[in-house]
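Could you show me just one protein sequence together with its fold in token form as a worked example?
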Amino acid sequence: MTRIRAGHGMRWVAAAAWLAGGCTALRELPRGEYAAETERKNVRVETADGLRYEFDHVEFGADSLTGFRRRDTGGRFEEYDTFGMPLEGVSRLSVRRVDWLRTGLIGGAAVAAVLFASLRGSGDEAAEPPVDPCPRCPE
């Protein structure tokens, strides 16, 4: 019988899943696409004055945007700070999105490492003799 070390393999699989889900990148939006959607999540706004704001989500109006940032109050209800500004004062708007290329590369490398380790580990262990389930029972 060969011994299967599920704990070791599962740690690799969990690490690969964690890495695959965590690759994001900020992507700048062209000015014409700012209000293409009425709401966007995980937004960074840079103003013409050189100020930078990070918002959990932003709602767009005809000529303005309103940013919402969650406050960490430790209470039962979520509280948000809001900040409005005209779109003409925005010099750059970036949205955090999943970077599928990076996610695929890291996830694929992690899966390949798990497969390599499992294939390499399966030949290293010597075969154990079969264990008699009942040593006192007559055959």
Q: What stands out?
A: Strands lie at 24-28, 39-47, 52-60, 64-71, 79-86, 90-98. The helical segments are 6-20, 100-124.
